[in-house]
Structure formats: structure tokens, C-alpha cells
Amino acid sequence: MGLRTDHHSAGSQPSGAATVHTAVEFAQQAEKLSLQTTQDNEHPETVAVEAKFVTPQDPVIVTADGNRLPPVPLEQAHKLNILKEELNGDVPTEEISQLDDNAQASPSAVAGFGSPSYAHSKAKQKSEGSLRRSMPPTNTHPLFPPLPLYGPPSLLRDIQCWTFRVSSFFLSAAFLGVIVLGALFTNIPTVCMRTWKRLTLQDPDAQRPFYEEEIRRQNTRKEQERSWKRRKSQGEKTPDRERAEGNDDYVPTEGGPDPVVCDVGYYARRVGLDVEEFQVQTEDGFIIDLWHVYDPREYTRLNDQERSYRGPELFTGDNRKRLRDPSQKRKFPVLLMHGLLQSSGAYCVNDDDSLAFYLCKSGYDVWLGNNRCGFKPKHVLLDYSDPRMWCWNIRQMGVFDLSALVSRVLFETGFEKIGLICHSQGTTETFVALAKEQRPELGEKLTVFCALAPAAYAGPLIGKMYFKFMRVISPSLFRLMFGIHAFIPLMMTMHGILPPGLYGWLGYTVFSFLFDWTDTRWDRGLRDRMFQFAPVYVSAESMRWWLGRECFAKHKCILATKEEWRSEESEDGTDAPLAETASQRMMPTREHNRKPKGATAWYNEQVCPFALWVAGNDDLVDGRKLLHRFERGREPHVRVVHSKVLPEYEHLDVIWAMDAVDQIFQEVREVLWKTCNVRDQCRTPKGCENVAAWAADGAAADDEDAEQSSSDSA
């Protein structure tokens, strides 16, 4: 039922009748947004009672028992809250029972609202209420169109869901089959070449850039496996323990041949560390995983109850910190976020050269965040089959997931700010969340944002045939093909069925085919392990945002439309030669219409400092374009404390390359320390003894001058 805007009609009703009518409207709207239908007064605790606006664009539904449901379209949330405001007041429940039995209102939905005396007291506000009813909600960003609304379970909704699930099972399986066959077919020449070299007594890997180092590491792992076996069979000191004493006494508690498992704790214990898992609740009710990497010699593991989720309220100011030796200075906390179709286990697959373990042993308090659903989809109210469980995209991952993870790390560590490191999609959700139209206050909780392979602009890979196909089909056909639940869940099924070695090889072959990357710079002996933490469950809506015809694939940017960023590039002189020639012909007009460079900024003064490491050989995203945006003064509030382009690096090399420690990780370690706001309260990380503090005030003054000069040129 739509909102009433006919003032004369409303004014002609007696005040009690008007209140009854509003109560019926509220009951119907509440039921539309509730967890379940409330016929015969069943499930009163699941009734929607309020839309809570986390940001102006993100209204989550609060149920009668205080739980949360995912965001709904703005107009639906606006309608629920206006009706609630018109009925708000302390009203005896027995007065509600006098409502007309034929009003189609659920008693549980209108309990506590709607007395005639309350309506009389609200008569003076009738005009204002009618005006608010007719007010349209705030417009949404063109890159983030409204998500569909799925109501509580009903026969019609169940038929719709099963139709999409059946159609998507067959169609998405066929699509995946084509991709796998294409990957296998294109891999035939490589297999033939390797076979020929072996038949001619040549080593097919001899030309790899780190071949000798790969052989050395392979031999080291074999020796450690033999040492572990001896240690298990003998109680005496073994080379494994001797190696630990030469490595700051990090004694491995797991060892032997690698079974290749999807378990970050196991790989942490292989290098003398350990991991505990926290459950974090987002403001829209999802339960997501947060992994804490710690040194068992100095940290006491929390019990299950302490590691459980704490509710949806964020940034409450409370904290809990626990050290085995309270007299020691604390380690500065760092949160790591993963890329598309991955989990944060991707940061734990290279033994001591894994970014998570490297930072932990350097002296940081390392936390690994995972986005919603992941390996184990969980929600406080919804189950896997409910389409509302999967109605989200990159905005919700940034606004809700990232904020919840940052808040929990702050609570557990007692710090006011933390460092943030993201790769690929993790950078995207952060860029989105920090934007001034999204959740800019999050920037005040971060000392620095380190972006590895920053994904703000699309690379040439988006034009490949299979991606172009997904961009061409309509949203309705996309949902018919890939469903309204998880995106190709068959991938997760295969993850649990196939042997780790076969799954790792197949995962690399398919992803290499899709994204044009290679394992040239990786330790190939660990490749099967790398792909045990991907893929994870993601929503079909999320993939539609990346690849569909409306959002990223169309505009090739996460926060600006194609027309906006092309206009900026034309003004800055960074567009293509043909466009430059055309712009020269239009120079007088363009100069006349030129806006201040900060006028189209994505971020305001609340944004944290940025550090960027760009893979120069990355066809998936274009990091150089983002660097140009900052260099050209398009973001006057963004302070870039460090930037580096690695010409030979591909998209995953920034976390998995064998020389990533020297090329990236050491610099990340130093950037985290020089931007730390409480250096006097923290232990100095290993290797950062001579790193000077970053002069934030001077950088801010420079930014203000740049902004002023931009304004003066307007």
C-alpha cells in the first residue's frame, strides 16, 4: 500500500479513524519488512519496528527483539519510519485491541501504537506529517543503484526463489563448465611445451626468475619435514628447535609434510605462531570471521564466549586488552582485508614470507578480516536459503563489514586507531567506505590505509569476451542465470570434494585463464596451498555490481561515472591522444567550464593517509590511473605518504611474489610505523628503529594550500 498524500481526504476523517488507518498502514509496512509473516500473532519478535539509518543511504531494519535485518530500499525505510513517528507514543495495549478486525493489521505489529487520544494530540502536526509522507528519499549514487526488496517468506516468494535456484544451477554450471574447458584448452600448448622439454632432457622451469631460490626453499622444506619426524620420534633437541632458536625462538608446533588444508591456524603453528577466531556482528546482522594472529609466548588466548559476537553496536568506546606480561609495551594493531573471491587466508600461505606472519614477527598485532558469508554464511536471523541473506554488494561490504571489523579490533586492543592493509577488492570496499557520501568517519579510526594493487579503475581485462557477455545481459537475465543467492555455489562444492592437489592446480588454471596472471614470481611448491583459501561464498548481486551492465563494468570506476572521470582526464591532459586532439579544438569552451579540481573529490577532511603499491603489469585494475588522480590534485584532502609502481608485478604478486618481502612488505612495515599515532606507547617493530615519524601536520597544511589554490583558480 502506498503512502497517502491526499490532505483533504485525511483531514475529513475523525481523528480516531485517521489513527486506525495509519496503524493499519504501519502494520502492513512492518510486515512487508519483517523476518516472517505475523498471521495469527505468530513470531511477534520478528516484526520490523524501525529502519535505522547507519548512513543516509543504508537503512537497516530493527526487529521487535532488537535484532537486525539487511538494508532495504530507501523509500521503504522512509515509509516505515514516517508511519512510526505518526503513531509514536505510550498507549495501552488494550486500546489497540479495539481496532477493526477487518483492518488486516497484525496485532503484534501495531502493539503499543494508535490510540484516538494520541491521534488528537498529533492533529496539530498533521500538515507537517503529510508533507513528510510526500517527501521523496535521498537519491542514490548512480554506481550504487537500489537493491531488490525481498519480503518475508510466502508462497509467491518461495516459487520465485526456487525458480531462480533451479535455473541458475544449470545455467551457471554450464557457464562454469565453459570457463573450465576454455582454461584447459588454452593450457594445452603449455603442457605440450613442458612435456617436450622434459623429453629432450631440459628443465622446463630453468628460465623462471627465482628458480634457484625455489629449489633452495623446496630443499629447506624437505629438511624441515625430516627434522619434524625426528623430533616427534625423539625427545631430544633437533635441528627444528635449533632453527627456532635462530629465529627469535619461534618454535613450530605443527610440522611434517604439508597436507594442504584450508586452515590458517595450522599454517601459523608451522612457523611458531597461532590464530584465534572471533565472531563479529555487523550492523545489518551478518556474523563474519575475524582471525587474530598472535605469539603464544606472550598472549593468552581468549575463551569461546569472549570471542563470540557482541551485538551490532559499533565504536562504543569500550575495550579489552590482554597480555601475558602487562608491563610490556603493546604491539600496534593492524587489520588486513582480502581480495575478490578470497579469504584472508591468502596472507598466510608463504610460511615466514606470508604478509600476516611477517608483520606479526616484526612486532605488530595482526588481525585478518573476512567479508560476509565467506566459508560459512551466517546471520543472526536469516538462513542460507533466504534471498535477503545474499542481497548485498561492495557498498555493504565497506560500510558494514569493514566498519564492524575495525570496531572489534579497537575493542580488543584498546587503541583509538589502527593501521589497515587491503588487497584488490579489499581496497575497493575501503575506497567506497571512506568516501564522503558513504561512511567518512571511518577514516578517523585509521592511521593509514595501505592499498596493494588498488582497485578503483578497471584495467583492459574488463573487455574480455566472457566479461563482456556478463555486461551485455540484462539484470533480470543475470539473475536467471546466476540466481539471487550465492554466486556459482558449485565452486564451493568442488572445493570440498576434490583432492587438494587437483583443486589447487585446477583453481590456478581457471583463475589464470580468467584474469591473465601467472605464477612466474611465486614459489610454485606452495601454489596448491595458495588456492585452498579461494573461492569463498559471495553474492550474485555482488558479482553483478562488478560485472553487470549498470555499475563497475559499465563505468570502469568505483566512485565516478564514465563521463565524470573521462572529463577529468580530458581536463588534466591524461586522456588518449585522439581525445587530446579533440580537447585542443574545444580548449576555449573547456577552459570556460573548468571546475576547481577539488570540486569532484571523493573524500573530505576525515580521510586517513594513503599508501599505494601498484602492480605495473596488472590488466585487471589500473592503479596508475588512481595515482594520477592524486597527483593531479583531484583529492585535496588525501595525503599520499608512500606510492610505488612495480613494473613487472601482476595482480597477485603484491602478496605472493617471492621477492615481495623486499619489494613491498618491508615498506609496508615502515609506513605503518611512521604513521602510528602512539609510537611512545608501542613497541618499536623490528627493522623500524630508524624510521622517523610522519609529519602529519605539515602534510595537512600542504593539502590546505593545494585546496585553496584550487579554489582560487575557479
Report the portion of residues in β strands.
5-15%
Average of pLDDT: 85
Strand order of the largest sheet: 4-5-7-6-8-9-10-11
> Helix content range of the residues, please?
40-55%
Category from helices, strands and their pairing: alpha/beta
What do you see in this structure?
The protein is built from 29 helices and eleven strands. The strands form two sheets. An eight-stranded mixed β-sheet has the order 4-5-7-6-8-9-10-11, with helices on both faces. By secondary structure, the chain is α/β, with parallel strands linked by helices. The N terminus and C terminus are likely disordered. The chain is 43% helix and 10% strand.
How are the elements arranged and paired?
Blueprint: H1 7-11, H2 15-33, E1 48-55, E2 58-63, E3 68-69, H3 74-87, H4 93-96, H5 107-110, H6 116-121, H7 126-134, H8 155-186, H9 188-199, H10 211-233, H11 239-245, H12 264-269, E4 274-281, E5 287-294, E6 332-337, H13 355-362, E7 364-369, H14 394-413, E8 418-423, H15 425-434, E9 446-452, H16 465-472, H17 475-482, H18 490-497, H19 500-515, H20 527-530, H21 540-547, H22 552-555, H23 562-572, H24 577-585, H25 587-593, E10 610-615, H26 623-631, E11 640-646, H27 653-656, H28 660-674, H29 696-712
Parallel strand pairs: 6-7, 6-8, 8-9, 9-10, 10-11
Antiparallel strand pairs: 1-2, 2-3, 4-5, 5-7
Helix pairs in contact: 2-3, 8-17, 8-19, 14-15
